[in-house]
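Database export, one record per block. Field names are fixed; values are copied verbatim from the stored entry.
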Amino acid sequence: MKRLCLAIALTVAATAATAQKTHEIRPSPTTVQHGIFDASIKPALVIDSGDIVKLWTATGHPAYFQELGLPKEKIPQELFTAFEGVKGSARGDHSLVGPMYVNGAEIGDTIEVKIRRIELWLPIAAMSFRAGRGSIPEEFPYSRDKILWLDVPGKKADFAPGVVIPLTRPFWGDIGVAPPLSMGRINASIPGVHGGNMDNHDMLPGTSLFLPVHATGALLSIADGHASQGNGEVGQSAIETSLQGEIQVILHKGMTTRWPRAETPTHYMSIGLDPDLNVAAKMAIKEMLDFLTRTKGLSREDAYMLMSATMDLHVTQVVDVTKGVHAMIPKAIFTK
């Protein structure tokens, strides 16, 4: 009997390994949606639960760099491909690769986006701030842009004489699914119940992001590569650049998720998003409270006190219309 059980287990494992596929998606006119999430967009890729996707995301419209005086021959050809036919000269931070249609995903399910790898791709990047925006607009009533050249192999950038920024924690700021059809087309720079532009620098490789499904197939899209960003993103911009990496998408049938949440290798994470930073903080706290009482067998009173003793609140960003706070509680404190 033991041999039979072992044989069955090995067969199941082999079947699962065979069924798992690896896909690639690169930025092009047919695989990039510039600045929008929309449930009516035709998928650029169809995947099954458990599949792995290798992807490249492009940031930096060639026209943007040319307006700043950069010669055409210095701009990577990959950016010309990604932004072919795109009018204007906006940098295009939210040029979303996708959508990726997950077979079997229906409204009310949850998809888990396991971030397996994120790396620098192209050596060009930019930063900017705009007049009247950012965290201290009264100090900067004018706009500025800055082109940065990245040392991709060395994972660093010479920001200014005597200032070197390590680029060891690149991440995607915009990871989301299509919103409900009733919401129509939404701006990809504004995060919400679909995830999206959360600008969360703790979503590094090893993190699982859980997103509620609002449209058939989920329609996952990813963009907004950051070579480096501080919590708060106070100057309105990270080091915006093109990244490459790898994700695995897992469908959780019947698992209801009201709001995006995540797990890093060391912490559980809840997320709050609102134009009012205080409201965003309360959202993150309440989401963690619900998570702990639902999954750890704690009373609401004990969970509340535990959070006060062990949980950290991080200001994700304060410069977009919708501000972000994420709460982190260590997994190590739970023994079962």
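Remark 1: DSSP finds five helices and 20 strands in the chain.
Remark 2: Helices lie at 2-19, 62-67, 77-82, 277-295, 300-310.
End of record.
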